[in-house]
Each structure stands twice: as C-alpha cells, then as structure tokens.
Amino acid sequence: MFGKNPIRKPENGDGSNLYVQEVFATLQGEGPRAGQPAIFIRLGGCNLACHFCDTEFEDFAPFSLAYLHQEVIRLSQNNQGKRTHHLIVLTGGEPLRQNIAPLGRTLLDDGFIVQIETNGTLYRDLPEEIEIVCSPKAPQGQYHPIRADLLPRIKAFKFIISNTFSGYTTLPEVGQSAYKIPVYVQPMDEYDDAKNKDNLSYTAALAQQEGVFLSLQQHKILGLP
After folding, report:
1. How does DSSP assign 103-132, residue by residue?
2. Model confidence pTM above 0.85
C-alpha cells in the first residue's frame, strides 16, 4: 500500500487456482456500474507500486476455482435463496497478473456479469463478454501506455484526479478518443479532508470542462467495503 507493496510479475498458471486477497459482497462504488450490488474478488499482487494506492492486496492466499465459484454463489443470494448480486468484479492489485480467463468463463456460464478493473499494462485473452474497466496509473508522474491489444476491449476508462498530485492533475489522452470509450474522472483520496474536498470540486469542474462522467467512491461514502 501507498507505494510500498512489492512489484509482482505476471503468473503463468492454468487458472485452476488463484491468489486471492478477499471475496465479499457490496455495491460497486465506481465507474459505469456504480450503485449495482456486486461480489468483489480481490486478487493478490500488482505489477505497479502507486504512491496513493489505498488497497491491501498482499495478504493473499491460494484458492481453487471451484471454491471461488461456490463462494460467489453463496454471497450472491439473499436469505430466501434469490440471486440478488449479478455483477462479479475481479479487481486487485492487478487482476490480469493472473490467469483469470477460466474463472471468468465459469462465472459467465452461470449467468453472472463479469467486470474486471485493470491498470491497462497487461493483457490476457479473455472471454468477449467480460467487461473491462481501465484505470490507468502514472506512478512516476507519467502514464503507462495502454496495451494496444487491450485498448479495443475497454468498456470505460476511469482516471484518478488530484488538484496537486504530480501526474494526476489533468485528463490524459491514452487512446480513449480513437475508440470513443466513455471516460470517468474520480477524485483521489489523499486521506486529508481539506485535500479531498479540494480534489472533489476540482474533479467536478474538470468533468464539466471535458464533458466526461464524474465518479465518486460510493462505497466509502456509505461505509461499505
């Protein structure tokens, strides 16, 4: 967290087991499906070390695909056995660091919607139905290029915005215009009330200036995981 996590290279497993930090039910708080009930599968490890990262993904353990599928089914149902959570979000860390294609296929075949959140620097061959949300990062003040093979698959971009943090004060062009990909801008959480208030107003103004969507971390506002 906060730039101190080790940078981990991609795994080359067959996808029958994945390193997972946690699995939990919540609401998707960000991006194009914000507000939708969702099951999050947070995968361990990342190939970047962003200074502002606020997510714990290094206390992970291996879980089988079969176990993850059953846990998703359990968490997706209410007390009467009705499926209430149709969206599964594969996040991290960096989910494309591991072979998530078999898990994605299993969940899709069971009728779930599958969305992944990636930094755009890695690529894997995934089922076409999987929705890809890309949140590019600029850990050294400059954005990493988005992979050319991933770019046509991206459903939405989500950019983190700060009024003062180097590299995050403007809306960059990383290929979204050529593919007419929707863009969301989200205030950076700098764990400082004054900075966060400033980031919120700055990002709201930027959204209007650029004609893009404002994304707020609804789960934090609601006190959800």
Report:
1. HHHHHHHTT-EEEEEE-SS------TT-EE
2. yes
